[in-house]
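Q: Structure for this?
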Amino acid sequence: DQQVKQNSPSLSVQEGRISILNCDYTNSMFDYFLWYKKYPAEGPTFLISISSIKDKNEDGRFTVFLNKSAKHLSLHIVPSQPGDSAVYFCAAYYGGSQGNLIFGKGTKLSVKP
Amino acid sequence: GAGVSQSPSNKVTEKGKDVELRCDPISGHTALYWYRQSLGQGLEFLIYFQGNSAPDKSGLPSDRFSAERTGGSVSTLTIQRTQQEDSAVYLCASSSHVFGTEAFFGQGTRLTVV
């Protein structure tokens, strides 16, 4: 039973346009959400996060939106750059400070020049 | 250390042999996670430690897999009688688990069972 779902295995976007990566979750106990970026042969690196008490968090070109009623979050990258090409993982903590960290299966983003 | 360190970075083993994978978390991080990523797949949760105890072992695929953590620091993931389907990249992450902090990943151990 997958608690964090990324239904799009891949996404292709033109350089300069917006990339929107989506994530759905099933467990209402999740209270903190994160996005990670992974290049081949490297470990995932943290990108941006959002607490369940917020609906938006912005950091430079990256914005994460959270819709708790829909149990949905999205990552927007504007403008997209070729260096953004990587696999993006959505992750969620539940149980506050005692929680486990659950990942989705990832979405491979390709930004074309 | 400055980051999460995993060793070895690569391991080739024969089917049926036991292997040990090591993770050195960031100093002071109380939470430690093990994941694996098979070819073309996502991050599969294996086990989570809070201190030396493992509140959640639900992801261990079989009883051939075990993990321990000592001194609230180093963790070892052991796979006994390895099978070809165990071939994957095994990733370790640690977190201070203060609310609002992220987990930091190591570079992973690429395990190949031949």
